[in-house]
Structures are given as C-alpha cells and as structure tokens.
Amino acid sequence: MKPKIIPLFVCFITFLSAQEKRTIGSVERLYPEMDQYVAPGAEIEVLAEGFGWSEGPVWVDRLDALIFSDIPSNKVYKWKEKEGLAVFLDPSGYTGIAPRGKKGSLNAEKRDENGSNGLILDPNGSLTICMHGDRRIARLDNWGEKSFTTIVGKYQGKYLNSPNDLVFAKNRDLYFTDPPYGLKKADKDPLKELDFNGVFKLSPSGELSLIIKDLTRPNGIAISNDQKTLYVTISDPKDRRIMAYDITPNGVENSRVFFNDGGLGKEDRGNFDGLKIHPSGTIFSTGPGGVLVITPEGKHLGTIRTQEKTANCAFDSKHEYLYMTTHMYLTRIKL
Fold first, then answer.
1. Hey, which bits of 3-142 come out as E strands?
2. CATH number of the domain bearing residue 169
C-alpha cells in the first residue's frame, strides 16, 4: 500500500523494552469463533515505533527474529525478543539499478519511498524481496552479506512498476502483485512502462506469466492451504475488496469477490493490504480498521483494531503470535 510520508526529522526509531511496553487498540469480536484465534483479554503490544511506513513482516527461524521493511527509509529491520531492534539491511529496496526520474546520488534518493516492501522466504529458506525502488524481485545472496540477485525485473522487456507482495506455492511457483505505489506519480508517472497493474506468476524454470491485468490496485497476495485458491487484495480506496481465483495450470480462472467492505464502517481507516493464511484456513487480512479475521467461507469473525492503518501481518513459526506492521509501529498480539 502507498505509505503516508512522514518527514524524517520527526522519525525516531524506538525499541520498547519489557518494562516500557505499551498497548494500543482493541479486539472486536463479531462471533464467538473469534475466541478460537484471539483469546479474550489479549492485547495489542507496541514493540517498536518511529517508522515511516512499516511493511512486509516475515518470521525467520534461523534468526529467531522477525524482519520487516520500512519503505521510506530503504531499510529492513530485525526485531528479536531479548535483543530488540536492529537494522538488518540498508539499502533494502533501492540500490540505483532502475531509473527513478530524479537527479542526485543514491544517498540523496534512497530515503524516498524506495525501499523494500513484501518479504518472504523461498522454499530453500533464502530471503526474497519486493524491491520498490529497483522495480524488481530479488534474492538476498547470503544472510551475512548485502548483495542481491535479480529474480525478475522486467516483463516483455519493460520494467515492472514496483513489485509489492509475493507468495510461493508448494510447487515453487512464485506469485506477485505489481501496483504503481513505488512510482512518484503512480499510473501517471512517465517512468511507468506497463499500461496495467498486474498479478504475475513466475515458474521455477523462469517463465513469467501475466495472470491478472484488470485490477486497479492489486496489493496483498496469498494462497489457500489446499493450493486451490489465490487471494488478492485491492487497496483502491474507491473499491476496497479481496478477490479470489481458482488456480489452474495455466494461471487462474473464476474471478470473484471474496470479501468487500460493505459491512464495514466508512470511518474505518486503511485499505485491504497484506494477508496471511492460518493453518486452519482462516484468513488474517489487513484492511479497514486493522486486521480482519475471515473464514474461508467469507464470514467476518472480528477485527484486531490497531488504531493506525496496518499494512501487513505475519505469524511466527509456531503461530503463537501475529505480528503486524502498523504504520509507524511494529505490533503483535498473542494468539
């Protein structure tokens, strides 16, 4: 999702110790089943704050930590329970290999909405990164290094817009969304080479396929546990919704609205953005109001109301916590 820019001189990154931790928001329970996922009394903890727009959380067992993007500062941070917050990658999404339509050095340009967005571990455990500024998806070459290998950066010889979110299928197909949020003027940016905002599939052999091209703002993406359904969130404020598609060998079919904001309050802040699938099949989707908990049948059980616009979420490997990138905060709630 397109971040709200906060002047860097007012952004002070802060890790909150156990003694300092505070809570925000609340949990809205629309049906009793919500208690199966978020226990009564659970609170939303603020773990760190001061980010420009936090995004792309992913739990990494080898680090025993969560890593996540701060898009405007072009960094990936690492948060660990006992050690707190540290910079993990700098730069994270803009290294100067793609045109930005702006004069100046990398250092002058890097803190300008150019950082990484979605992060994920590939089937081999390597970190795969949506690089907004470089307009590519890349792999971190080594956990101890800061070099990257491009996985995909162009479609039919044209630069991608700004890859946003991604998910691997069990057969190693990589699905990703490509809205224009990383471009200064979005759809009207002169650097935009594609005349659509697409959803793509990259096969393990390297074949890139455009599978969806009729969405205004494709954003978050996830695959059902049975590998049959692709979910894509639409972060267009004029038409907030989650789409579902049947996955086929050649792409997708049976496009349908899985969930929209018809039953949500118009005052609820935020758009549908990142989403993750619980082992039960239930969808945890960021959206208006915070993180919505929705059954595979589309029943809205409740909302983890974070107060601030929330861009993405991730489970730890034991599904004990849900971590949320909540605008200027990193937050979590016990499951």
1. 14-15, 22-24, 26-29, 44-49, 54-60, 65-70, 75-80, 84-89, 116-121, 127-131, 136-140
2. 2.120.10.30
Decide: 141 and 128 in contact? Cβ < 8 Å. no
CB 138 within 8 A of CB 128: yes
- Encode pLDDT of 247-274 as tens digits: 999 999 999 999 998 778 777 889 999 9
Structural tokens at position 293: 């908990």
Quote the Cα angle for 133-135-138, to 5°. 100
Tell me, yes or no, whether 10 lies in a domain: no
**Is residue 9 assigned to a domain?**
no
For residue 6, being part of any structural domain is answered with no
CB atoms within 10 A of CB 14: 16
Q: What is the pLDDT of residues 204-240, one digit of tens each?
A: 999 999 999 999 999 999 999 999 999 999 999 988 9
As beta bridge partners, residue 248 has 251
Domain count, the chain: 1
Per-residue pLDDT at 173: 98
Looking at residue 9, its pLDDT comes to 34
Which residue has 């609340």 as its token pair?
A: 26
Q: Is the pLDDT of residue 24 over 50?
A: yes
Give me 173's structure tokens: 């197909």
| Percent with pLDDT over 90 in the chain | 82
**8 Å CB contact between 76 and 69:** yes
In Å, how far are 21, 65, 124, 283, 296 from 279, measured between CA atoms? 29, 20, 21, 9, 12
Kindly tell me if the per-residue pLDDT of 105 is higher than 80. Answer: no
DSSP, collapsed to helix, strand or coil, labels residue 174 as: strand
Amino acid at 284: F
**Residues 273, 209, 193, CA angle at the centre, nearest 5°?**
75
Answer whether 29's CB lies under 8 Å from 37's CB.
Answer: no
Two structure tokens written together for 7 = 């002047």
Strand partners, 285: 275, 292
Residue 262 is assigned to a structural domain of this protein: yes
Structural tokens at position 66 = 């969560």
The boundaries of the domain holding residue 227 are 23-334
Task: Provide the pLDDT for residue 34.
Answer: 98
pTM over cut 0.90? yes
